[in-house]
Amino acid sequence: MFVDKVKIFVKSGKGGDGHVSFRREKYVPNGGPDGGDGGRGGHIIFQVDPGMNTLMNFRHKRHYKAEDGENGSKKKCHGKDGLDLTIKVPQGTIIREAETGKVIADLHKPDDKQVIFRGGHGGRGNQHFATPTRQAPKYAEKGRLAKEYWVILELKMIADVGLVGYPNVGKSTLLSMVSNAQPKIANYHFTTLSPNLGVVSNQYGKQFVMADIPGLIEGAAEGVGLGHDFLRHVERTKVLVHVVDTAGSEGRNPVEDIYAIQKELDQYNPEILETKPQIIAANKMDIEGAKENLEALKKAFEPQGIKVIPISAAANDNLQVLLEDISALLATVPDEVIVFEPEFEEEQKIDHEAYTITNDEEGYFVVEGVGVEKMMGYTSLDTEKGFAFFQKYLRERGIIEALEDAGIAEGDTVRIYDLEFEYYK
């Protein structure tokens, strides 16, 4: 089964917490803090697997999580980093953030490998917070949180030439006659339910990749039928080949069919028709009634610069001429893969270091936290200016508001480590 769009949940690893401990050895009564740092959380990595050509594997597993970092421990031991998680995808996979639809990455190269979401940094142990005035810090950093997102994986097949047209006009037959592809062919609408790729060589040995884009219907740009699932594969192609049933063997008008397909392409993405050269493969010329319609096609489209080539894919007639004209069009476009540039930017969250507010047995409001302790370490609280700066820090970090929420009243005592002061509004 061919699957080219899935939604999955990914989560990087959380950073390990820093450790609080003190060196305790014989003959070393005041060994000082020796809490180790937490390990880094594992990254989420996406990597191209050349052996994959579908996103089918993601239909069975939707949640992916990297390993958390290990907590630090005593004797300055660093926690082990969490294992990265590498997710294999086919070449041409675009990763989008599900909520906004913005592109995170486009894995268009055969050896592409990208870190999409980084694991959280490990927290620092209490050894880092010792100062000349505070030699026994009893707090360590928590590890940074993991990053978690729902993402959409879209497979946009990479091909030089895209065959477009209504169902049952002969696209699969044409691809099978000019390339090594072996698509299923039958006289039914939507026989082709997934894109087929084939490597084509013209008589001069020039090679290019041709894709049979499954048959479109009117309303495809609005998602009717399987419209969006098919139209996305047109975006990477460099040249569009409209394949039409010139004989109108099913009662259709080939001129109107091309206009209808162009309308769907333009509604889906206006840049497709603006940037991609087009050519018309007037197929089924061996069937009665085709010659009259061929003249109508030439009259309608050749004045627009779109060449009309009469062929019969089933009879292998005039296919080399078509391939030469396709090669000539390819020579006019840049020889590079169409890449979708990243648009997604992670929201930068302010890192308010955690603090706690508790009531001790004496009825004091006790505030503890690594940020508060660090602030006290490098702020001179003996001066009016320094104490005003410290009060501003408490207010900006929301600690004053949290104390009020905890029920503090005027005249109550606040204790922050070895600092005590009475609360007044």
TrEMBL record:
Gene Ontology terms: cellular component: cytoplasm
Transmembrane segments: none
Location in or out of the cell: Cytoplasm
Gene3D superfamilies in the cross-refs: GTP-binding protein OBG, C-terminal domain, GTP1/OBG domain, P-loop containing nucleotide triphosphate hydrolases
Complex formation: Monomer.
Family: Belongs to the TRAFAC class OBG-HflX-like GTPase superfamily. OBG GTPase family.
UniProt name for this protein: GTPase Obg
Organism for this UniProt entry: Holtiella tumoricola
